[in-house]
Amino acid sequence: MLLTGTLTLSLLLAFDVSSGKILRFVDENGVTHYTDDESEAQGYDYDEFDDLGQPDPDNVIFRLDTETGSLYVMNKFNSTITCKVHVTNKDAIDSDILFDTPLEIPGNTEYYLGRLEVISDEEVSITNSFDIGSLFKGDENVYYSSREKDLIVPFVGKYRVTQGWEGGFTHKGPKSRYAIDVAMPIGTKILAAKSGKVMDMRMSSDKGGPDPSFRPHANYIRIGHDDGTMSIYVHLKGHSQLVKPGDTVRQGQVIALSGNTGYTTGPHLHFAIQTNTGNGIKSIKFKLNGKEPFSGTPLSN
Questions:
Q1: How far apart are CA 242 and CA 269, in angstroms?
Q2: Are strands 22-26 and 32-35 parallel, antiparallel or unpaired?
Q3: What is each CA distance from 139 to 282, 284, 286, in whole angstroms?
Q4: How far apart are CA 261 and CA 214, in angstroms?
Q5: Rounded CA gap, 255 and 33, in Å?
Q6: Over the stretch 195-235, which tens digit does the pLDDT of each residue have?
Q7: More confident residue, 19 or 120
Q8: Which pLDDT value is given to residue 168?
Q9: Residue 15 has pLDDT above 80, yes or no
Q10: Which of 115, 174, 191, 284 has the fewest Cβ atoms within 10 Å of its own Cβ atom?
């Protein structure tokens, strides 16, 4: 989106969702690293790691009022997002915008960011990075509760955890470090592990397989909870959702059916409890029906 400033300066508004990207590389000692900082991976032969549940960046839109110099951001999600605005050349502008600061933007809202005036002939790049959800105010390391049913097993039936916390195959990045995979037949009923509100989803895919090229095709539903945590349910069957963004759901409600979409070696549910840290989404340890879901653990309601 190319806008012309008051001093014949071209102001380029762009978007950067690198905060949702996990990169994997092997260093000179043969150690595998996972990072969301692209500069850390420079100099190595790295690839983009499977990062599940990345919200659509097209739902966050800049608007500059060239007459007043007012900069706005539109959040088209039903959920609050935490957004940062970045600038490449602060010396070229006069502004009261809080750059590089996490700002909570309510859902379906155009939010006034501040005044922006061009004072140089240099080009200025204004970029945006965001994560879904509000800043988490609780413990970012663990989600345990004295109530056994605070989080219930999110499916109907009895199945074992096939990949647990920090699983060597795909559970290394911040968003998935404390996720679990549970193998189950396609069409298994998936339940809300906790009451909350549907924040975001992608349920239009019918594609899946063991090749990394399938990474963008994983269906998912994300639910936000009153305590600030979020639960995410991934690899769901296409078009099987029984809820929509903005819906309030109760614990144990059927939200969709399990599937085999995205980058997957077989039908399963990927489940995690996540928080928004202001510097990226982070998964945290949790219990289901009062039990830690380690690899090999049988789970059922």
A1: 17
A2: antiparallel
A3: 11, 9, 12
A4: 8
A5: 35
A6: 999 999 999 999 999 877 788 889 999 999 999 999 999 99
A7: 120
A8: 64
A9: no
A10: 115
What is the number of residues in the chain? 301
With tokens 């074992």, the residue in question is: 160
- Of 157, 284, 181, which Cα lies nearest the Cα of 231? 284
Q: Which amino acid is at 77?
A: F
Q: Which two tokens stand for residue 167?
A: 């699983």
Among 107, 77, 18, 109, smallest CA distance to 200 is for: 77
Q: In what order do the strands lie in the sheet with 32-35?
A: 32-35, 22-26, 47-49
Terminal CA-to-CA distance of the chain, rounded, Å? 50
CB atoms within 10 A of CB 185: 12
pTM here is 0.84
Q: Where are the alpha helices (DSSP H) in the chain?
A: 38-41
Q: Which residues pair with residue 66 across a beta bridge?
A: none
DSSP 177-195: TT-EEEE--TTPEEE-SS-
Return the structure tokens found at 159.
């199945």
Backbone angles phi, psi at 183, to 5 degrees: -70, 135
